[in-house]
Amino acid sequence: MRDYAELWEHSPGSHLLLDDDGLITAVNATFCDWTGHQATALLGTPFPRLLPVGDRVLYATHSLPQLVLTGRIAEASVQVTGSAGQRLPALLSATRVATGPGTSETRVVLVDAQQRRRYEEELLLARRRAEEARAQIATAEAELAALVHHDSLTGLLNRPGLLRALRGRLGEAYTDRADGAVPTVFFLDLDGFRTVNDDLGHTSGDDLLRVVADRIRSASRAGADIARFAGDEFVVLDDVPPSAAGAVAGRLVDVLAEPVVLHGVEVVVHASVGICAGSVPPDADPAEAADLVVRRADTAMYRAKAQGIGRWEAHVPGSTDPATDRLVLLEQLRSAIRDRELRVHYQPRMQLQDGSMSGVEALVRWQHPARGLLPPSEFIDAAEESGLIRELGAWVLGEAVEQAVRWDVTGAAPGLQMAVNVSARQLADTDLVNRVAGILARAGLAASRLVLEITETALMHDPEAALRTLQDHRSLGVLLAVDDFGTGYSSFTYLKQFPVDELKIDRTFVTGMTTDAGDRAIVASCVHLAHAMGLVAVAEGVEWPDERDALTALGCDQAQGYFFSRPVPAAAVPLVLAAVPG
Amino acid sequence: MAQDGSREAVDPLTVEVARVTVHTAPVATEHSRGPVARRLNVTSSGRPDAPVLLFAHGFGCDQGMWDGVLPHVTPDHRVVRFDLMGAGRSDTSAYDPVHYATLDGHAADILAICAELDLHDVTLVAHSVSTMMAVLAAIAEPERFRQLVLVGANPYFLDDPATGYTGGFSAADLAEVSAALDSNYFTWAEAFAPLIMGTPDTPDLGDALTASFCRVQPDIARQLLTTMFGTDYRPLLPRVVTPTVLLQARADTMVPPSVADHLHAQLADSTLVQLAAVGHCPHISAPAETAAAIRAWLLPAR
Prior knowledge:
- The complex is a heterodimer.
- Helix content of chain A is 46%, strand content 24%.
- The radius of gyration of chain A is 35 Å and the shape is elongated.
- Chain A contains 22 helices and 22 strands.
- The longest helix of chain A has 35 residues, at 114-148.
- An 8-stranded mixed barrel of chain A has the order 13-14-16-17-18-19-20-21, surrounded by 4 helices. In chain A, strands 2-1-5-4-3 form a 5-stranded antiparallel sheet.
- In chain B, helix 4 (103-116) crosses helix 5 (130-140) and helix 6 (171-183) packs antiparallel against helix 9.
- The radius of gyration of chain B is 19 Å and the shape is globular.
- Classes of the chains: A alpha/beta, B alpha/beta.
- Chains A and B meet through helix 4, strand 3 and helix 5 of A and helix 6 and helix 7 of B.
């Protein structure tokens, strides 16, 4: 017969037996060798005393009840206190068996688990870090969301905030409303605001805007959304029956016609109001519909202004359609691409840390035979709407990539990052990634030298599709940037998923950051958000040294703007580079 | 396990339960179905028209803790049990870390159960961390409760030399307890893995299964443990007007004997009962003795 007593003493595991009260009745040699305890000293003492206080609590509250209720516990990760006070990581398993009527025995096995515990601790640490990062991002998101939708000067909504509210209302517009009210945009522009600003100074201008904001608020219903859209443009959005819209506009005109006293000077400003009701077809894209409604109200406002001060006009369906003008423009643009009237200019981008030039952004220009050098704002929208953007975008991309290689080869400006804008339409093109790969391969430029800049709005247009396209480009090795960040309507849930490398903070916030605490907070939040997500923060539109200093102080990584250099022709880039320190 | 699944054959769970001699007789249980009841897995057993015993389980386990006591009280009581948020089969998707940042959130759950089930003249039997929830609930709605029975209660786990109070743990211990919960994380996470056999369609099975798991959601447990160790509930005690019975076991790792004396002195209308049972969970290790002690001190209907 085998000597099982010897096996008990020198089993590979540490074994203990406990009685009903948890007192140790037997302990094997393996345990004593491992912990340094003397068997005789342990007998009759409570088993939990061998555990540090934390494990003792969990043993009492969780493991022991489980043991009694189910008869076993398996692989609880504990530490055992050795004779010298050292902590020995172990896995504890136990069974509890009846030994007679009303009595039982608990059999404990402890296995040394140093390695496993180390892994677990690393895993836990990683988990806690991930939780902290998630919490940080959530906080930054919430702050940013509050900031980006409000105008810090007046406390009203700003442009993105208003467009968001309008999209919401248009989405609900087709539910039946007994009073026949429809979401209606009242677009207000102050007549003579510039005079106040110029004659009395910016402070008075700001005071006036606050007074105007208060008056618009007082003249509007509680449920209305009110926004300062830009400068001296305000928008009131409310659900109004069509027959009552004129009365609302009239009331707005009237409250603003009252004189305002600013620092002892009486000022009279009038407002022109344009009205457009949001009667959009139910299948329309709410974002496009919102833009359209605001644009129509804006156009109606200009008609009102043209007729004199303090008037209002409503949008008339079918009135002057800018569509005809656009067709002419598109035809010209088509021939411009063919006749090589397009140019690419390059705006340098700087590292804020050391002031060195890290790259350039390629920006298209149109050398129009009659109208001179046109910026993209004059023709990109039309190109985007017509689909001509694909051809145009491909040309710019090819030109920019080839230019980067030319700079490398001549040594005039080697190694620069080349950033190129990609539009919503291009992004939706499933062939884009092949096209980009082809252009890079033909020119012989490393994919990591190319940064594709995509506006936040384009990304959010169809986030699912954008995600796939971005992933394709990411596998190619191309870097990706979110452009005009802060102006769109980001769903952060998506943004987090996008494999992007950079956030480009929109110029409107940068421009205001040294004078406007709200804008400064937005920029700070953007930088914070970028870093929380592991992205490079890039500021656009830097025009003054104090803006650069403020950005540097906020930890922003890179910047571009007139302060460093305007967009210049390719030949001028080496000159800018030569003037840069380092 | 049994080789066939017929309900007429011996249920493998019954065998398991019988082997550890917890159940003396099977107790029919039904699951209540209001929103609060669903969220906290409220179960009822016993005689619907009899006086109400509401059982609140302690830290680290679930309502299955009371299984052994149940057969001793169901013949002449309506017994209601539930799982604390984060334990057992509670609906952890309803967990809100802010709401449950203090024990008040849990105490509100107890009151919500009473309201939803329209329980009156309730005897609330609570263990461990739930004892202070019971105190909070009784202060908030004294008219709701006939009596409190507190098992292994501790109003403040830390020693407070300034007042000569010995809660049983030092500040350094507190840090260790939290760290230990972390080091056990994977064990706990495993305990909270989805139930393999229990389904909502077979609640009678589900109850027994719950008892066999002691499921606790580790992240929630961590917060509850921190709250329970970090909060001094002693100032509440003089505000309790409900008659209270304190059950104190021998060698309770979590409650030094002096704490029971403190509770007895501070709770105006209280009775301290010393049990022969050992450890923090006498209702598990000695269910018959614990049940007998509860029965002995139950107050008659008002």
